[in-house]
């Protein structure tokens, strides 16, 4: 079987497209690259959705923590403290243990039955944990950005008659993002790396369709050689990290486009004549 055919058979296996059975013998590098790469689809799924939903939740938590209303501030502080203070690995197990206690037939509320079985699957239950975890860390980052918004910017906004939502949308929020973005970039990278912990959590892989670490573990167990499959996983994540750095760098330049020299790259200009 050629490598192109192997990629066609196993490249999307992690989402149920292609060969249903895993290879049993005669493992080659192409099979390992193809299957582990297909598992990366799930890692990207967890990371992208958790980052998107967590960003919105983190912004709300940061505003609540900065609020003078204790009914908003204290719950936000408690949420951030709990999820930042406990290991993510423990959060996965506690969430799964709590979700399996839900009735299999679903919850009946006002005569409407809401199914709950899907919450015990990794694509939903583990995603919820990742969302809550990254929201807590990102909220602390954004809160630091909120506290460091220059007072001069706020006074200038008031001088121009910008108050309330208009001031937040046009002055406070962009400045908060600009100040927080380098640290938030690191959080995004850590989040994608943390998606590998889903493999070790209580959330099962359905029909052998797991993430990248699931397939790497399969090959390592079958070949008794962890020095091929696991470095392939590391290589995929290094490429993913480089992509994240490039994407967040573009957004960072967009956020700082109004600053002097922010839109210009350094140019090499040798001094030919002193």
UniProtKB/TrEMBL annotation:
It holds the Pfam family BPD_transp_1. InterPro entries: AA_ABC_transptr_permease_3TM, ArtM/GltK/GlnP/TcyL/YhdX-like, MetI-like, MetI-like_sf. One of its GO terms (cellular component) is ATP-binding cassette (ABC) transporter complex. The chain crosses the membrane at residues 44-66, 78-102, 122-142, 188-207, 227-251. The keyword Transport applies. One of its GO terms (molecular function) is transmembrane transporter activity. Keywords: Amino-acid transport, Cell membrane, Membrane, Transmembrane, Transmembrane helix, Transport. GO terms for biological process: amino acid transport. Belongs to the binding-protein-dependent transport system permease family. HisMQ subfamily. NCBIfam families: HEQRo_perm_3TM. This is Amino acid ABC transporter permease. It comes from Paracoccus sphaerophysae.
């Amino acid at each position: 079987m050629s490598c192109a055919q192997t990629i066609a058979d196993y490249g999307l296996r992690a989402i149920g497209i292609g060969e249903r059975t895993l290879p049993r013998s005669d493992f080659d590098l192409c099979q390992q690259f193809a299957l582990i790469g297909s598992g990366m689809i799930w890692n990207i799924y967890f990371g992208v959705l958790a980052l998107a939903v967590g960003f919105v939740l983190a912004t709300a938590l940061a505003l609540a923590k900065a609020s003078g209303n204790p009914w908003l501030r204290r719950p936000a502080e408690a949420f951030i403290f709990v999820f930042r203070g406990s290991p993510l690995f423990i959060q996965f197990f506690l969430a799964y243990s709590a979700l399996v206690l839900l009735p299999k037939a679903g919850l009946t509320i006002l005569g409407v039955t809401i199914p709950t079985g899907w919450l015990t699957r990794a694509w939903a239950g583990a995603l919820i944990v990742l969302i809550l975890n990254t929201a807590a860390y990102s909220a602390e980052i954004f809160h630091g950005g909120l506290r460091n918004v220059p007072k001069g910017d706020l006074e200038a906004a008031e001088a121009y008659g910008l108050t309330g939502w208009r001031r937040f949308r046009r002055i406070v929020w962009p400045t908060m993002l600009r100040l927080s973005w380098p640290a938030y970039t690191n959080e995004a990278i850590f989040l994608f790396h943390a998606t590998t912990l889903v493999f070790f959590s209580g959330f099962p892989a359905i029909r052998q369709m797991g993430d990248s670490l699931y397939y790497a573990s399969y090959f390592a167990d079958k070949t008794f050689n962890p020095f091929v499959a696991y470095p392939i996983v590391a290589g995929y994540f290094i490429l993913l990290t480089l992509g994240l750095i490039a994407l967040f760098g573009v957004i960072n330049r967009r956020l700082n486009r109004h600053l002097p020299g922010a839109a210009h790259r350094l140019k090499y200009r040798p001094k030919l004549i002193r």
